Amino acid sequence: MLNCTITQQNHSSNETLPPISERLHSILIALYIIDLAGGTLGVIMMSHQLFQRRSRSVITTFIVSLLVLHTFLLLSIPFRLSYYILREWKFGRLACKLTSVILYIHMYGTFAFYVGIITIRLFQLEFRRCYTTAWVGAVWSLAALVITPLLLSYYGTSKTYHPSECFQFQREIQETHMVIINYCLVGVLVAVCAVLTVMQLFVIYRLAVRYWPDINSHVEFRAQAKSFFFILVTLVCFMPHHAFRVYYIQNYHLDKDYKLLLYNEVFLALTTMCCLDMLCFLTGIAH
C-alpha cells in the first residue's frame, strides 16, 4: 500500500509530497535496503555454516525452512524498492499481488517456525525427525496450497485500483469478513507470543537461580537464551505491526489524508526486519 499523495505525484510532476509523507517514504526505502543487504548476507553466511556442519538436528530443519522463507522475501524486495523509488508500479497486477502475498506468507510462516523452535526447546521435547518434517510440511502446504491461492484470487479484486499503483488494498480491509480475519490473526499472534514469553522468562529465571553464577557454562541455559532471541524478534518485528493494525482498522475512516496508510506500510516493512535474524544467530545453532 502506498499513500495516495505519492500516487498523485505519478500524474503531476509539479506536485510535491508533504514533509511527513516524504519522511515516511524515505524510511520505507531505508528499511527495505537494510533488509536486502543484511538479509542476503545472513542467508549466505548461514547457508555456508549449515553446509559445513551437515547437521541433521530438528532445529536445523526449522532453520533451513527459515532460510527458504527469507530467500523468497529477499527476491521480492527489489520489486518493492523499484516501486518506492520510481513511485510507479511497472510489473502488472499479478506481480503486485504476488509481492504482497509473499510478505504476509513470510511473516506468518516465520512466526510459525519460531513457535516450533521455542516449543521444542522450552519443553525439551525429543521430537523425531518425522514429526518435525510433518510440522514444517504442514506449514508449507498451508501456505502454498491454501493461503497463497486464496489471496491471489481474492486480494485486490473487489475494488478498482490504478494499474500504476500497488499495495493499495486498504479499502478492502474494512469489509466485515476482512475485519474479523484480521482481528483473529492479531489475537492469535498476541496470545501465543504472550504465553511463550511468560513461560520462557520463567524457565530462564529458574535456570539462572539453579546454575548461578556459572550460568553461561551450562548448555541448557544457553539453549533457552537462544530461544528467547526468537521471542525478542517477534516482539520487535511483528508485535508493533499487529498492534497498529487494530488501530488502523478502527480509524481508517478518519484517514482523509492517507497518513495512516503510510504508517501502516512502515510497520509492515518493520516485520521484514526479521530476515536479519540469521546475522544475529550465527553464533551457533543448537543441536
SSE order:
HHHHHHHHH
The CATH homologous superfamily is named Rhodopsin 7-helix transmembrane proteins
Q: Can you tell me the overall shape?
A: globular
Count of alpha and pi helical runs: 9
CATH architecture classification name = Up-down Bundle
Q: Mind describing the biggest β-sheet?
A: none
Report the span from N to C terminus: 41 Å
Regions with little confidence, pLDDT below 50 for 5+ residues: 1-17
Number of separate domains:
1
Bin the strand percentage.
under 5%
Structural class, from helix and strand content? mainly alpha
Radius of gyration: 20 Å
Q: Write down the CATH class.
A: Mainly Alpha
> Count the strands?
0
Percent of residues in helical segments?
A: over 70%
CATH topology: Rhopdopsin 7-helix transmembrane proteins
Mean pLDDT: 81
